[in-house]
Amino acid sequence: MSLRISLLVSVGRNPVSGTPRACRNDVAALEIARSLAGELTLLHAGEVGNPGLADYLAYGADRLEVVPASPDSDIVAALADQLGNTDLILCGSRAEDGEESGMLPYLVAQRLKRPIIGQALSLTIIGDHVEVTQFLPKGARRLVRVALPAVVAIHPRAPVRPRYAFARKRAGTIVALAPATGSQASPWHIEPVTRAPIKFKAHKKEAGHSRMQSAIASVSKGGEVLTEGSAAEKAQAILAYLRRHRLTDH
Amino acid sequence: MAQAVTALFWLTALLLAAGLARRASLWRAGRAAPVRWSGLLAVPKRYLVDLHHVVARDPYIARTHVAVAGGAVASILLVAVNYGLALYNPLLNGFIHLAGGITVAGAFFVWLRRRNPPARLSGGPWDRLPYSLAGFGFGLVLVTASPASDVAFIALLPLTLGAGDLALGIGIGGPMKHAVAGLLHLAFHPRPDRFSGVRSTGLKPLALDQGEFGVAKPVDFTWNQLLEFDACVQCGKCEAACPAFAAGQPLNPKKLMQDLVVGLQGGSDAGYAGSPYPGRAIGEHQGGPHQPIIGGLIDPETLWSCTTCRACVQECPMLIEHVDAIIDLRRDQALVQGDLPGTAPDILANLRETATVGGYDTDTRYHWATDLTVRIAKPGEKIDLLLMAGESAFDLRAQRTLRALVRLLQAAKADFALLGPVETDCGDTARRLGDEATFQSLARQTIATLATLSFDRIVTADPHVMHSLKNEYPALGGHYQVLHHTTLLATLPLPLGKSPETRSVTYHDPCYLGRYNGETAAPRKLLGAIGIEIAEMTRSGLSSRCCGGGGGAPLTDIPGETRIPDLRMNDARATGAKVVAVGCPNCTAMLEGVVGDRPEVLDIAELLAQALEG
Amino acid sequence: MQDAPIPRRNPRRPAVLTAAGLKRITLGEQGEGSVFGAALPAEAAAKPIRLTTEPSSALLAVVHADRGALDGHARQVVAAAALLAEPSDAVVVLVFGALSDDLAPLGADRVIVSPDEAWRPDYEVACLRAAIDQVQPRHILFPDTEAGGGDLGRRLAAIEGDAAAHVAELDRSCATTRRRGGRLAARRALPKILLLDPDIVDPDLPFLGRAETASLALPVEGSGKLCDLGRQSVPAADLPLEEADFILSAGNGVADIPTFLSLADAFGAAVGASRVAVDDGKFPRAKQIGATGKTVSASVYMAIGISGAIQHLQGIKACRHVIAINSDASAPIAKRADLTIVADAQDVMRHLLREMTDPGRNDMEEGS
Questions:
Q1: Has the ipTM of the complex gone over 0.85?
Q2: What is the CATH number of the domain that holds B396?
Q3: C285 vs B557, B593, B595: nearest CB
Q4: Domains in chain B: how many in total?
Q5: Are residues B161 and B233 in the same domain?
Q6: Which DSSP state fits B193?
Q7: Who has greater pLDDT, C244 or C219?
Q8: What backbone torsions phi and psi does residue B395 show, to the nearest 5 degrees?
Q9: Contact A17 B345 (CB under 8 A)
Q10: What is the CATH number of the domain that holds C184?
Q11: Within a domain: residue A246?
Q12: What count of Cα atoms within 13 Å lies in the side-chain half-sphere of residue C5?
């Protein structure tokens, strides 16, 4: 029997114009999902008529199922209801609109009692396991194996080249499912940003002079300039700098 | 003897008809196209006048062709009358003799040309052509000289060979097919407006709702486009003019046409005997009428190297529209495959999402004018001129040109206003990359915006914007009178003195202003009005060499041996000029990107503004 | 009421005469013979320990250590826990990975270390829950990193429920995150679990923690469903430029490309170039760094022969250490670079390469 793959997608926004669009992270996840052998369904919780959803069709999805939901519905329950039979659930790591907490993959995994791997750059399905290459900082990678069924969240910088094709937009279908129920009051109070964030710091009783020093000391107009010396000495100065800041092993 | 010729005539006529039928079936595999059969009647005028204008640029071959083609056609017609209808009139015989002689003379000059041919010409079957023509002509001369002698019988041989080659050639796709295909192409040209003295350069819209998404396989072309490809004589004038070919990018318009011929008839490109795509080997591609073109027959890099400058179309003696074919292929790649190289996919996403090429906030488009006390157009207020800045408004360098333009308009006390923050991209970049859907969406948005305002004319410093609004928006319902800023400034009462510019100046004609819209005079008139004597480059005016900035080429960024703007800057350096005057923000950007010691690049508006009195 | 005498300053403070002939007082220095006995600022006094009573509640900070040390982000999270702590709260830190750092300056009172280096998220969650059972913290703080804290914190949040991620602003009563690309601020009362973004906390504290080592009954390792098949380091040349940590970048001043590339190899650095070098054909377009090229965030960016035009500097805004080698001392890159070497690029590159492949040879050649 072929693998059943579900891709959870969200509607994102262009950061400059606010135009609804397919979330870039989710598009990367779609591109990975399409490269796997299996039946792929896209699942979205939100408005059926959202103009950003058609973008997923253009990026190659044949079918997109929507659970009609409002921002305070219990979408984890609604999505989990649709995902009971799936072997592999794929999704992005963080949405572009909404709470943007990156919590959904973990909540869905917890609800369905399935293992979850995040920061996936690529994955291969081997029998009833999937091997995931995870992103680590500073250019490192980690290979992880997990048994199916599982949830895999795709890292935003997964190396894929999505292709947007207008003709595919008209060829795909968007279907509405049963609406999500339930309502939870949101603890969040939202307002436009008016100022830069204030750092959380200890209240220090300092003299005016030391406060001024710490305020101006961080502004630097460039560091050391080394003009004198032979080329060999200058090369050694560079290596000394690197060693001092523990930037190189040489 | 005469009967032999009659028989030969009817045999070749039959072969010709069969060959033509076969070839026509290949053309008819293409899509339907709206053509007027009255075009057939217009062929003589189109051939003798419009075609002649192009061919006459190379007087040697123009006169040679008159001899060869004129002689051959005349002799065929006369043979048809005299031998075909078995009239056997000695006077007509004499004329045939004469015509044959002219054909031989012409063939001699063709042979002479082919001894040391320019690199742009193709070899192979084309190198045999002088001999076939000479054989045909010579055979006729001998046959009509002494109809009943033995010599005549021997002459039947070259006559048969020559005539056979010519007649068969049409059926099997040999060089002579250009005679039939070329004439039919003149009759059924996809852009018949070319023959009414109008520059027909606007691209045709796609009916996206009806599933028209461009060309994936040869049969997706219209039948008159397939006919057009067969008309190619592989003269290579397009190749010699193409900036991408000169820069060593993998594009050769002549080979592109021949590859499309391979596509429509099936087979591989191994038989091609001309210059290849730079860096690509011949004989590794194949195709057929129902096979996808890009990938198997033509590489994507070939397609995306084109800057849509139309130098190929300008030079082509068969009036082939190479750029239309390239855009048709790009449309399928963009709309169905979604496969574009370089930064093009990101740019198209920016256009879809923010209606700007750079992904900017449209509110900031006119921030360069905040301190200039200019009006912003408002609904209900009537103005004469509406200034549209285009994408260059976001670029610091191009803003200098725009500010100079505003100063000039203010100095001329023109009644103008800026389009303002409601301006969205005109869609030119999207359309040249093949994304017709985004173009139509942006065009409709712009048309709707302009419909809320009342103005007489639009002026812009960007020839791409001008071209889109003037030549391509009418098909979508937007009809405007659009002027390039040089065209407008040439008519305004500007208080100009002598230019303080003492350095030598050359002028670079933008492709979208010169070749696309025919405007080469106004910029020169303006520069002359401020006392600048232009040191013209060898390729200037309508044969100006592209800067490389059109067709989305800087976005798809196909590497070549060198870069197109470097070639153009070399042209400028060769004139000894220290200033290059330009009329387009893309040209400004591309030419200023040339590394090293180079002339300064200034827009005409900037040069004029420097010369303003007071 | 007699307060301490008001410290008065000597008006005749040490001053210098500037080139323009004006007298400039040097701030912060006391004059000779201070008449009124001004007190010296107590700079060198030791910091007090914050926790003075027996704690009745606690806060838990969960961090991952890398090669025995906590990185800046992790340190900020521990300091945040210390700043949120009430006088009756103990600050407990759970560290995954071996730890050799002293956490007292960060306000940590108890430190629990689980020294295993392998990645087993199920085990880590089990450890975490055991720690929570034992410590009963009011709040649990994680650094919101891509691997490590961000992953573990969300696993816990999925179980526990009350959480805020990507916290961009924190104070004692509420946490704020940013939405819509930084245009909206969403604020809520402090939830139980907090995942903090980097650089929202100042880890410089005016007090110390007790930093006692504590132990925890760590759970037995169960077999998780996830199996770590090992880490691999991607060679710098294969990494996308945006991810590279050490970048060697060539500009117009680099004529000797082979030496440049060997040097990049020796450092294990990724190769980048300025627009001029790419336009000249020396490097492919994909290597271009700057406004029209890539934006990089390396820890070390070595700009060789690059003048530092504003468009290039836009691409290296996020780079931590910038070292420039340029023959022109007044090149704009000098204002951005932490170390500028004014020399011929080719010479310095050759000596650097020699120094790295055969250290000491330079000294022998140049003499003392």
A1: yes
A2: 3.40.50
A3: B557
A4: 4
A5: no
A6: G
A7: C244
A8: -100, 125
A9: no
A10: 3.40.50.620
A11: no
A12: 8
Task: Give the total number of structural domains in chain C.
Answer: 2
Chain A adjacent subunits, 3+ CB pairs under 8 A:
B, C
Strand segments (E) across B254-411 = 267-268, 286-287, 382-388
Helices and strands per DSSP (H, E), number in chain C: 9, 17
What dihedral do alpha carbons C28, C30, C31, C34 form, nearest 10°? 150
Residues of chain A positioned with their CB less than 8 A from the CB of C300:
242, 247-248
Domain that holds residue A106: 4-176
Q: Residue A167: inside a domain, yes or no?
A: yes
Flag if C279 and B563 touch (Cβ within 8 Å).
Answer: yes
Encoding tokens for residue C124? 């880590």
* Residues B492-529: tens digit of each pLDDT: 999 999 999 999 999 999 999 999 999 999 999 999 99
Indicate whether C33 pLDDT > 60: no
- For residues B47 and B177, membership in a common domain is answered with yes
Determine the structural domain holding residue C143 and report its residue range. Answer: 57-214
Choose, out of A16, A19, A57, A161, the residue to mutate when testing the contact with B (most B CBs < 10 Å). Answer: A16
Judge if C253 and C202 occupy the same domain: no
CB–CB contact B360 A16 (8 Å): yes
Quote the CA–CA distance of B13 and C329 in Å, as a whole number.
83
CATH number, domain containing residue C340: 3.40.50.1220
Q: Considering only alpha carbons, which residue of chain A is nearest residue B438?
A: A166
Contact status of C165 with chain A (Cβ, < 8 Å):
yes
Q: Is the pLDDT of residue C38 over 60?
A: no
List C186's β-bridge partners, or say none: A190, C177
Would residue A75 count as lying in a domain? Answer: yes
Q: What is the CATH number of the domain that holds A97?
A: 3.40.50.620
Q: What is the domain range of residue B526?
A: 505-610
Residue B113, in any domain of the structure: yes
Using one digit for the tens of pLDDT, what is the confidence trace for B396-441? 999 999 999 999 999 999 999 999 999 999 999 999 999 999 999 9
pLDDT of residue B189 exceeding 90, the answer is yes
Q: Which chains touch B (3 or more CB pairs under 8 A)?
A: A, C
Q: What is the count of structural domains for chain A?
A: 1
Helix (H) or strand (E) holding B324: helix B322-332
Compute the nearest-CA separation of B347 from chain C (Å). Answer: 13
Chain B neighbors of C285, CB-CB under 8 A: 557, 559
pLDDT tens by residue, B526-567: 999 999 999 999 999 999 999 999 999 999 999 999 999 999
Which chain B residues are within 8 Å of C292, Cβ to Cβ? none
